[in-house]
Amino acid sequence: MIKIPELKIGNLIAKLPIIQGGMGVGISLSGLASAVANAGGIGVISSVALGMLEHASKKTFKEDNKIALRREIRRARKLTDGVLGLNIMVAISDFDEMVRVALEEKIDILFLGAGLPLKLPVGISASDIKNSHTKIAPIVSSGRAATLIFKTWDKHFAHVPDAVVVEGPLAGGHLGFKPEQIDDPEYTLEKIIPDVCAAIKMFEIKYNKKIPVIAGGGVYDGDDIYKFMNLGASGVQMGTRFVATNECDADIEFKNQYIKCKKEDIVIIQSPVGLPGRAILNDFLKDVKAGIKKPFRCPWKCLKTCDFKTSLYCIANALMKAKIGELKNGFSFAGANAWRVDKIISVKELMDSLVREFEQAVRKKQPAFDLLL
Asked: How far is the C-alpha of 153 from the C-alpha of 289, rounded, in Å?
């Protein structure tokens, strides 16, 4: 009998090898994350700038962020007994505080992206990490980055992460690639996954544990899941597909952008935080490209790398406005395949269709599936 494999990360077991990517500001909160967890995957809350949804002030933003994060984790826990994750950007100015909240709330797994987690947060020891309920999964874009993280943890903490997400250049949002690498065939997800698998192999042996590699960025359907698992991945991370679901925490106008956009509407922008990003072109971004400044007062320097003094707009504010449907004052990040989305469905419908597509792919190429067993 053909059955899609489970995803095991230490003692965590997700019935389906599908992780819903963390999407900020406020796109993936307790509603979406709990629905994905209930459907057998790993649901992920995004921690970025949650305080903005609380109308936080500059003086209290760190405290407001922590309050909002605790509420979302606890709310999700009431809604599901499944596996819940939290995405925290290493580049945020309150990274240490948010990690401490996550560990206190015993989130199942922490996904750490937008920077390399080479240091432990202030007040957290290697022993705290080793003995924690929470698993750690850095997000990388190369085998070299994975090697650096694992070697650093091995040397300084005598411990290594429990999983690693490999995010390719077709992802939505901020990308860990130089602009010229995004369309370079040498930097495709298909090329990167084997490199990361090879990079962590020695650490699997040394620590006598399986370290799952998760493929993300441009993963759209069951055929993709099958393809990347045959390249060595134990599961996939998907963001774009989960935006167009009933349970996604974004406003309907945000979701409709995905339904209405065309392939040519998916563009690469230069973010105020100094990274390229993939988004859906709209009037707001057209104004920015034309050099029209969107007046703002920095609510707080939420990202360490943001050059807010010279920026034409506040990206945190623009993303927050888009989340609540005010697209004239903001824009939506999206993956390269967002134009393929044509309707809004439930999370369960989406997960069921992905499983069917995976199983159909197996039937077409049964011999290759033996590599997964």
From this structure: 41
Per-residue pLDDT band for 310 (boundaries 50, 70, 90) equals low
- Quote the number of domains for the chain: 2
Helix, strand, coil percentages, rounded to 5, for the chain? 45, 15, 40
Domain that holds residue 40: 7-250+344-372
Asked whether residue 335 is domain-assigned, the answer is: no
Statement: residue 196 has pLDDT above 60 = yes
Q: Do 75 and 12 share a structural domain?
A: yes
What is the pLDDT at residue 373? 45
* Cα dihedral value 111, 142, 194, 242, nearest 10: 40
Q: Is residue 171 part of a domain?
A: yes
- Residues 159, 191 within the same domain: yes
Q: Which residue has the higher pLDDT, 292 or 88?
A: 88
Beta bridge partners of 138: 112
Pull the structure tokens for residue 79. Answer: 């809604």
What length does the chain have?
A: 373
Do residue 35 and residue 174 come from a single domain?
yes
Do residues 213 and 232 make contact, with C-beta atoms less than 8 angstroms apart?
Answer: yes
d(CA 167, CA 189): 7
The answer on 187 and 143 residing in a single domain is yes
CA 212 to CA 191: how far, in whole Å? 17
